Amino acid sequence: MKVALAADGTEVAAHFGRCERYVVAELDGGAVTREESMANPGHEPGRLPRMLNELGVDTIVAGGMGPRARAIFEQFGIAVIIGVSGPVAEALRQLATGDLKPGESTCEH
Questions:
Q1: How far is Cα 100 from Cα 109, in angstroms, rounded to an integer?
Q2: Buried b / exposed e across 35-71, counting CB within 10 Å, b at 16+?
Q3: Tens place of pLDDT for every residue, the chain, 109 residues?
């Protein structure tokens, strides 16, 4: 699994499109096997889903995102997990072990 997690500092960002960066990680066998950071290229509808699809990302994790963004990700076959908060490292660990629990979107617009 290749995941992009929206991050602000060391925490999962409340909104995927307005975060400072994305942590792109590969997960295998219950562990994070590779991790890199990528600056947010800017909030332009459709740009990020295309870019992450080209990188081979199949899942995105964030605190929240709007329904239009979710629909675009789904068109690319990218799963969306929202309602996640807390430290990035813990969210990645939980995702790798199958313990990450989605919640309500934290997107407020």
A1: 25
A2: eeeeebeeeeeeebbeebbeeebebbbbbbbeeebbe
A3: 999 999 999 999 998 888 999 999 999 999 999 999 999 988 777 788 899 999 999 999 999 988 888 899 999 999 999 999 999 999 999 999 999 999 877 665 5
CB 55 within 8 A of CB 2: yes
CA atoms within a 13 Å half-sphere pointing along the CA-CB vector of 77: 8
Domains of the chain in sequence order: 1-65+94-100 (3.30.420.130)
Q: Coil, strand, or helix at residue 23?
A: strand
